[in-house]
């Protein structure tokens, strides 16, 4: 994987661009101007990455090469092994705790006592659509976070602290939507709003480490985007399975967060 070092100027431009554009899209969504605000928001890191690459190109006085430019945004061939890794990691850490919760509290699910065929009939298509839809939006985030921000932070602070800072920034980027629009309500109602914000940063830091590990090993944005899309897609489908919404929002994230975070945290520490 080519080690592309961003200049300080280009990364400053990246952060300014992502802050300004994200603030605009946060307002668009929270004000109800467009229901597609979140989808567009998730592509703002990618736009910022493109802007940063242009600034770096001009600063280094390099000739523009489309293939090289796309490579520096993470668009490279990816080994199938890492694509499969991106699929399986979220499936394991999301599905298993939800399934355990289902066994312990069967009455909290709409499909208790029904055949698997009925569950698949209602959820399989939304699962497929959800994963691929989220793959598109997640690609926008991964181009920016893993393609531009994290490599610079690792170059400046080292792998461990670079990934740690990147995860915290990624989490804080979600705060306006969580606090103002109830985005990912499992965290909004996580005991208290402030605790939900902190918990979400814990999640993004752990997941950010794993996503960057996959990106670093594969040399391609596709594996990280697949993993990110799976995380969002699987979580969305799991919400279709429960009827007692309020109970799940108050208790569920605490239980599922602990069960899923422990193996994810151990794996993240291992790859650090």
Summarize, please:
With 272 residues, the chain is mainly alpha-helical. Helix content is 79%, strand content 0%.
Report on the structure:
The protein has 272 residues and is mostly helical. Helix content is 79%, strand content 0%. The protein has helices at 8-30, 37-41, 44-60, 66-72, 80-104, 116-157, 159-181, 185-188, 193-218, 221-238, 245-250, 252-271. Helix 1 runs antiparallel to helix 3 (44-60) and helix 1 runs parallel beside helix 7 (159-181). The two termini are 18 Å apart.
Q: What is the share of helical residues?
A: over 70%
Q: What fraction strand?
A: under 5%
Number of strands: 0
Q: Write down the overall geometry.
A: globular
Radius of gyration: 19 Å
Q: Low-confidence parts, pLDDT < 50 over ≥5 residues?
A: 243-256
Distance between the termini: 18 Å
What is the tally of helical segments?
Answer: 12
* Multimeric organization: single chain
Largest sheet properties: none
What is the arithmetic mean of pLDDT?
79
**Element-by-element helix/strand order:** HHHHHHHHHHHH
Give the SSE map:
Elements: H1 8-30, H2 37-41, H3 44-60, H4 66-72, H5 80-104, H6 116-157, H7 159-181, H8 185-188, H9 193-218, H10 221-238, H11 245-250, H12 252-271
Helix pairs in contact: 1-3, 1-7, 3-6, 5-10, 5-12, 6-7, 6-10, 7-9, 9-10, 9-12
């Amino acid at each position: 994987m080519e080690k592309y070092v961003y200049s300080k100027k280009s990364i400053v431009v990246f952060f300014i661009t992502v802050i300004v554009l994200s603030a605009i899209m946060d307002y668009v969504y929270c004000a109800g101007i467009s229901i597609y605000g979140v989808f567009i928001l998730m592509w703002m890191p990618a736009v910022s990455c493109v802007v940063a690459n242009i600034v770096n190109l001009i600063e280094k006085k390099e000739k523009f090469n489309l293939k090289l430019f796309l490579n520096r945004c993470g668009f490279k061939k990816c080994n199938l092994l890492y694509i499969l890794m991106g699929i399986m990691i979220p499936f394991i850490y999301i599905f298993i705790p939800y399934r355990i919760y289902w066994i312990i509290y069967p009455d909290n699910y709409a499909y208790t006592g029904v055949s698997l065929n009925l569950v698949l009939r209602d959820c399989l298509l939304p699962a497929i659509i959800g994963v691929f839809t989220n793959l598109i939006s997640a690609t926008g985030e991964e181009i920016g976070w893993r393609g531009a921000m994290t490599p610079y932070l690792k170059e400046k602070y080292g792998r461990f602290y670079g990934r740690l800072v990147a995860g915290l920034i990624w989490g804080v980027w979600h705060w306006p939507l969580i606090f103002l629009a109830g985005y990912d309500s499992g965290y909004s109602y996580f005991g208290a709003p402030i605790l939900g914000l902190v918990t979400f940063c814990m999640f993004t830091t752990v997941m950010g480490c794993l996503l960057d590990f996959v990106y670093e090993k594969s040399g391609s944005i596709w594996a990280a985007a697949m993993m990110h899309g799976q995380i969002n897609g699987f979580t969305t489908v799991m919400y279709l399975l429960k009827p007692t919404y309020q109970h799940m929002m108050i208790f569920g994230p605490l239980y599922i967060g602990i069960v899923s975070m422990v193996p994810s945290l151990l794996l993240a520490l291992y790859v650090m």
